[in-house]
Amino acid sequence: MAHKIIFNVSPKVFDVTECVRFTPNRSYEDIIQKDFDYTGQSQKAVSITNICSVPFTVSGFTLFSNTENGGNFEARVDSFSIGASQLIEIPVLYFGTCKSDLPEKNYLIALNGVSVNYKLIIETPFVNTPPEITTVEMILDNRESHVFGLQDFLPHYSDADNHNMASIILEGDLSAFRLNGNFMTSPAEVTALQLQNGAFEYLAQDTNDEINIIVTLKAKDELGATSN
Questions:
Q1: From the centroid of its chain, how far is CA 54?
Q2: Residue 121 β-bridge partners
């Protein structure tokens, strides 16, 4: 009876670190808002490839983070499953707040030996600071009317963003005032153009008594922000 040499070779056991990786030769670019608190919004996806003939479930992981100026921004992907020899797109989820002063950041993100570039454009949102206006006090003679002009208000107006005054807003008893000759109801808005054209006026009261008229005054800038 002949004797044999018998080899029993176990099949290759594929490991996720050997098989699942970023799809090579890709690059990514996305835009985020500085100081915005992200809570998992998805704006971009990364391409991931399984080069092996078995499926895998991959745990979630962090792509990159930014802690400049006390920020806590992270880009992550959640846990996912990928089939044998499959290419899939996985959403990138943003969390936390980016406080970087740089307009863009470039990150080299890696997954199991394959690295790709991820460019993050950081936009600073425009903030329109409300204007300010101080009290306008006028002293008139008895039975003296007054036609208002821009110069009655501009010395009392200021704006940190250097925006022009678009209008004034009046609240209170406006029975003594007229706009284009018409009665006014509270609140009333008078534009800078109307002031410039002499459309806003105070009509003298038919009395010899001392009169004190006080109305609330606000100003609005050309972008629509209103003073407090």
A1: 44
A2: 31, 104
Domain span including residue 92: 16-123
How many domains, the chain? 2
Q: Do 43 and 110 sit in the same domain of this protein?
A: yes
| Paired tokens of 27 | 């690059």
Q: What is the pLDDT along the chain (228 residues), one digit of tens a residue?
A: 678 887 877 777 789 999 999 999 999 999 999 999 999 998 899 999 999 999 999 999 999 999 999 999 999 999 999 999 999 999 999 999 999 999 999 999 999 999 999 999 999 988 899 999 999 999 999 989 999 999 999 999 999 999 999 999 999 999 999 999 999 999 999 999 999 999 999 998 888 888 888 999 999 999 999 999
Residue 195 and residue 154 share a domain:
yes
Q: Flag whether 10 is in a domain.
A: no
Take residue 156 and report the two structure tokens written for it: 């009392």
Q: pTM for the full model?
A: 0.62
Question: Rg of the Cα trace of the chain?
Answer: 34
| Closest of 88, 106, 107, 92 to residue 47, by C-alpha | 88
In a domain, 69, yes or no: yes
